[in-house]
Amino acid sequence: MEPKKNPKADLSRRSMLFFQLGMILMLFIAWQAIEYKTYDRSLETDTLAVSDELEEEIPITQQIEPPPPPPPPPPAPEVIEVVEDEEEVEETIIKSTETNQEEEIVEIEEIEEAVEEEIADVPFAVIENVPVYPGCESASGNNAKKACMSEQVDKFVKKKFNADLAADLGLEGIQRIFVQFKIDKNGNVVDVRARAPHPKLEQEAVRVVSSLPKMIPGKQRGKPVGVLYSLPIRFQVE
Hints:
CATH architecture of the domain at 121-238: 2-Layer Sandwich
Largest sheet: 5 strands, mixed
Distance between the termini: 69 Å
Shape: elongated
Structural class: alpha+beta
CATH class of the domain at 121-238: Alpha Beta
Number of helices: 4
Number of strands: 7
CATH topology of the domain at 121-238: Fusion Protein Consisting Of Minor Coat Protein, Glycine Rich Linker, Tola, And A His Tag, Chain: A, Domain 2
């Protein structure tokens, strides 16, 4: 009896070859899944006021009122001394304050001018008139201008900061950078300082914050003063 199938079409002869190819393909897929990494490039910034005071709850205690003081003693009767006409009474002589033409006039050589008191740098949270960021001039009120400036600074830092730098440095997880700078009397950003987990991140934060645009300076008691500003930067690297 002749076989029904062609011997060349028998796949059982190459079953071992197909099995080996399948194993190699599964190992390659598993290796790619283990080595695959993703990076979260979202950048978050928060505004921190240096001089914000913590509200402390003061317990209400009952005040003990001291007893009223005793009434003052009655005044002693005034003794009126009668002076007889024959007794001589010394009179007080009032000297004239008018100057005489013969007296020497003293000349004043120099008059010292009063030096204006210089106001020290004021934190951003307690400044009377906050610095005005370009584009926030139309905001009404000090609080509105303060909120507008904080929002614009956050947008500027998110746009300019290189968040991929942390991944290139081999850092993982949440990275926090604390930046402090001053807006001087002319509205320029100066004295930028940063603290970060890596010196490269500190340099990047100083570079970005130093490039902030010139602002209208803040005022305290109607005079331009330096304003201290703190900016925490936070982002996550996976």
